[in-house]
Amino acid sequence: MKKYLFGLSVLLIVVLVASLYGYATAFNIRNVESFTIDGEIVSLEEEQSSTFIRRMQSLKQYDVISEHQGNIFKHIVLNMKFGDSVSFELGLDYNFNTLSLKDISTDRIYLIDDELVEWIYMQPAIEDIYYYASPKRHKLTINDQAIEQSSVDYHYTKANGVWYNESNEIGSITSLVIHEPVLEFNVEGDGETELKVFRDDELLYDGSLEAFEVPQENGDYTVVVESTWKDLLFYGSDTSTFKLSVQYPPELSMTKTFIRQGEFTVIRIKNVYDKELLYLEQDYMEGLQFTKNGTYYECVIPSTYYTTPGFYTFKYGVGEYGDEIELEVVDREFNLQFLTVSSSTVNSTQTDEAYEQYNAYYKPALEKDVYVTTEPYLEEDNFTLPASGRLTTEFGVQRYVNNKPTSYHHNGLDIANSEGTPIVATYDGEVVLAMELMVTGNTVVISHGNGLFSSYLHMSELNCEEGDVVKAGDLIGKMGTTGFSTGSHLHFSISYHRMYMEPGYFLFGEPVTYDNYNQLIN
Ligand SMILES: [Zn+2]
After folding, report:
1. How far is the CA of 492 from the centre of ligand 1 (A)?
2. Are 213 and 281 in a shared domain?
3. Residues measured by CB to lie within 5 Å of ligand 1, the ion
4. Is the whole model's pTM more than 0.85, yes or no?
């Protein structure tokens, strides 16, 4: 487009048939300076000049027949009847600098005086020369669907140098639904095109069409595509705003369909368009729920030593997309452990007051799911062993205290070492409890997000406070034998909403036993 407007002076051809009626006119024809193509300076006869100007003044738009080729005028015929005699071509220069008149019979060209040029260009009859005066419009299609324009802002100038503006809010909003991550933009029209993508009010993308990537996550987005044009005689923009509804089909999975007591599995659903449509039918346990982690909705299915072995059916999905999976929970033979605890320890720790305190502080801490993580549910075996030492009690062992069987299974791992051995956080999280309790001694509970917690008991001292955000490996305390304890050791447990799981799956990807412990830690 520019090359036409800058380089070429496009001549619009006007044929005038002038007759020689003598009329008086407000314009002085002697202002017209004339010369021939041979360079000979001649004057247009005064009477011819007056007639031309008079005819221009009285010309009506319906007298003009114009021919376009794209945006460029090829030809204009001014339908003037002047009898026979002289024919003229009117040459229009798109830069509005000159105007020439050519006598067809003699090939003489007459340059029209500057003062008359603007006047002629502003005659309503030849308004069509401002072909760009109506807003340019881009045609936008995405995936072959036409996207309507929502607003236009347009500025243009005429020979008089005045800038005219046209703006309108069309307000059309098209909806586009995609089920796969493909958006093929096709913009017809000159200029630059950029786009902005919003989700709710958050600006997610602002840039070129080329660098734009289709959203990976299901949901509703607002997309604003703005195309701009700029030239000497006009500039402006048009905008198409549309609602993009990303509805990729859900992907359903269960990470494991076979678990041992103390192990867990996770239902994962990716591409959830509407979380209200999530459903889960099962008779495994109460309280199972989906939480959003990154682009997944996840439901953790924990198990522990009291989970009844067997097959459990899970029906789950989102809307019309569903799956049915059979989960098998396998019995794990837990060892027995015989403990002798001195009567003074029993007397000081196994009191009503001690258990009231335990219930008031420790148990609620295991529900303070405060740490926020957007990652998928914690993957196995990337946790840090919180202390060095010997494994003195496995997860799940059934205990006999002073030769009396208890109904309790050991809910974590006991790691024994000398008093003062450093104890570190097993994973990133926030400390939700750091205090001395009668039963558990100096106790720390860390929230790791997504309902997962780790606990550290019987420490000789605390090196963190409630509210501290810790990283895996950060010092949180020292090993000791405070509370109901028979010697310096760390009791370390991992729970999901109070259900204790085998820490070995988080530390090593398998249960920790007396047999494999030394091998696993080396
Ligand atoms: Zn223990």
Report:
1. 7
2. no
3. 414, 491
4. no
